[in-house]
Amino acid sequence: MSQTILRGEIGYRTTAMLPEAAQAFARCITANATRFCNVQLCVSLNTKVEKLFVRFQPVSADRQETIRHEQQEARAERALEQPFMFWKDPDNRMMTWCFSVSSGETYQVTPRDCTCPDFIYRCKDAGIKCKHMIAQRLWSSEQMARMIAQDF
How confident is the chain (152 residues) per 10-residue block, as mean pLDDT? Predict the structure, then answer.
């Protein structure tokens, strides 16, 4: 089971299971209505045989906030660990191009948006930043520090 964010909903997601097991687990979680809500059976599109996974949320707002914080921290760690290259867009001074050296993907990043799927489908509605936005902010801070250092 892992923590997830999808379309702003903070919660948990199981691995893909055979339908009978997923249905039984969903019934178990549904029976714990004081702890969990929004139980959903979802079809896994990544398996050769029909499998389902179960999505559900904690009822506790404190637990949801803890998950949101942990998800943001995980993205911050990846922003520090993964290699990125950045270029300011000459036509839009608020926008930066972000190239992920490890994946080869390129995204447009601003202080409030990113074109990566993680931001679009998970982070944006949950109010957290993706790793590209975090890495871009660190890069901008380094660029500013270099400019100030050159003035002295």
Answer: 79 94 97 95 88 95 93 95 94 94 95 95 93 94 70 60
Query: Would you call 152 helix, strand, or coil by DSSP?
Result: coil
Residues 6+ apart with CB under 8 A from 102: 82, 83
pTM over 0.85: no
End-to-end Cα, the chain, rounded Å: 53
Token pair in block for residue 4 = 């997830």
Each domain of the chain, given as residue ranges in start order, spans: 2-59, 72-151
Helix (H) or strand (E) holding 2: strand 2-6
The two tokens of residue 19 are 């339908």
Q: Phi, psi at residue 149, to the nearest 5°? A: -60, -35
